[in-house]
Design goal:
mainly beta; lipopolysaccharide transport protein A fold; 6-stranded antiparallel beta barrel; 11% helix; LipoPS_assembly_LptC-rel; LptC; LPS export ABC transporter periplasmic protein LptC
Amino acid sequence: MKTDRYKVAIGVILCWTLTLISCKKEEKIVQKGIYNGPLSELHGINMAYTDSAKIMVKMSTETQLTLQNEDKVYPKEVRIFFFDKLGNNTTTLRGDSARFIRSKNLYHIMGRVLVNNQIKNETLQTDEMFWSPDTKKVYTDKPVDIKTPEQVLHGVGMDSNQDFTDYTLRRVTGVLSVKNLPQ
């Protein structure tokens, strides 16, 4: 009888062991990939660059994405306002989108880029422009149209100070005098 009890006890232990082993959940091994998306996403951006507590440049845009390399992407319209030393808005630059390249401290404005100099009543239109806050220069290698009160200038490539008061067209492709046009 004693042996029968041992046999029953061993049988029960074996049954429980087999039950526990067979009910064990199978774990899936999931490999985690490297995340390459933005580190942050901000909305309603209004930034100001100051010099001696005076606003020199303001930038506004709807969305800013900060990437892994600390570059910033502005996928929606960007507006940059340049101010003189008295605080007057002298020039406005706008583009459909932009990117800040941190390693070069350079803004790359893309899409339909428009620059409006309120002081000289001149406008510029191009597809791409770069702005360097360090050198306070804007430039492009793309075709440019500049409208002044007297003429329309066409060229490929342009260099200017950031408030667009002193610019140079690299390759002028045409000049049209506005004074002599019939209205």
